[in-house]
Amino acid sequence: MATLVEKAVRIAMKADFDDAVAIVKDEKEDYLKVANSKADSLVEEHDRIITVFLAKDKRLLFVSLENPKESVLEKRIKKAAAEIAAIRPKNDYNGIAQGRKHYSADRSSYKEFSNIDAGFLSDMANGMINGAEDGGAASVAGTLYLNSYATEFCTSGGYSGGSFSAHMRVSIRCFGKISSFQDFAVLKRAGDLDAYEFGKRAAEMSNMVKKKGKTDAGRYDIIYMPSPAGSLLSNINSMACMGNIETGSPLSGKLNKAVGNGGLTILDSGNFAGSVDYRTYDDEGMKTSTTEVIRDGILRNYLHNFSTAKKYRTRSTGNAGLVEPEPGTPIIRHRNSAKNLDALIGEVKKGILITNTWYTRFSNYLTGDFSTVPRDLSVMIRNGEPEFAIRHGGASSMVGIRISENMLRMAKSASLAGGKPVQTTSWDSEGDYCFCPPMLVEGVSVTTL
């Protein structure tokens, strides 16, 4: 019996479309909120959405329906056949991948997380809270997310298959005597996290220094913890997508040129086994891969889907994005590394430890100019020692400073890592994951708010 995605593609081709891709995503999310050091509320959400990509005479259109029925889907696709003539052609569109391959689904992580219930989430939350309280936190907040996805796809190019995925994302925010500290854990297996130790370490970080103070505007060596370091440097992979290269990116025209520190390597991966975003195929059915974007500071590759690869006479990197290439999971490494965060701090004569950022905004995407606002714990470092928590008043989570940077200058000034990359996310980009170590960036412009 034909699946819904197979039927959607057949309906589209009968309606005389040139290309069609149908994707059904069945997503379930449970999340437990922690507030005031107590497990506060459990929310369950379940959505089933079909998205159909349609192309006719280089005109492109998407159709999306929630909890779709075949009869409704057929009417909507036929309606799209009349609508698409009004869309401006994308003249450099070169079709979707052609082949004959069916991808079988791996249920391993999906099966493990399907057995987790509210009691497990509650036990993990209480372990995290107990650890934080024993570590000296005055109050604890956070969230525990359990996400599971079942996906099916079919293309008019001959690709089809499905995938199952599940993971957990845990965030904690500990309030100490001087400052707050937020941390994240991304879990591919439920047993990967010791909740008590996770909470205790976060509380100890919130009480890392015993006093607070103010700092002046100027240039400082900045140590970014993995979450803000990854959140910022992950923009490199988006900037390397061919759609952005064409419209204007800091990496445009810089292929095989130095764009980062000689020790810096940034990969883009769809198939890294350790990633919670692991998948064997991209949105048009091409096999995913791991691509060197930057190796030893040199820009080695742009990211392509089938259409852009055909245009530039190269190969798809397995990064579709049906209309434009889209990045996979960034893996950020540095050849030069201190043993750990403490050793990295010991390398800094005058600098600031940044543990979290928010509201990162580009003032000029073409050049890569951006600013970001540190929040939670930010520590002044002098002569290799933490001195005080930076506080300029205002909201409890804000520290009163702003970082103004350029993405390529940041990449070139990232001189030293502080250990191995860890899988992380951030407040700014929860749900987008990367692998990144703590990173030392030299000579960063800091202003006061």
Task: Offer a quick outline of the entry.
This protein has 449 residues and is an alpha+beta fold.
Structural overview:
It is a single chain. The protein is 22% helix and 39% strand. It is globular and about 70 Å long. With 449 residues, the chain is an alpha+beta fold. It has helices at residues 4-14, 70-83, 108-114, 118-134, 195-206, 226-233, 235-239, 242-247, 306-311, 341-345, 407-413; strands at residues 19-35, 38-56, 59-66, 101-103, 139-155, 159-175, 180-187, 212-213, 218-224, 264-269, 290-295, 298-299, 329-334, 350-354, 357-364, 369-374, 378-382, 385-390, 401-406, 414-417, 422-424, 434-436, 439-448. The strands form four sheets. Strands 8, 9, 14, 15, 16, 17, 18, 19, 20 and 23 form a ten-stranded mixed β-sheet that branches. It has eleven helices and 23 strands.
Number of domains: 2
| Rg from alpha-carbon coordinates | 24 Å
Structure class: alpha+beta
Question: Can you give the helix content as a percent range?
Answer: 10-25%
| Averaged pLDDT | 94
Shape estimate: globular
How can the largest sheet be summarized?
Answer: 10 strands, mixed
Query: What percent of residues are in strands?
Result: 35-45%
Number of helices: 11
Count of distinct strands: 23
In whole angstroms, the N-to-C terminal distance is 63 Å
Low-confidence segments, given as residue ranges, are none
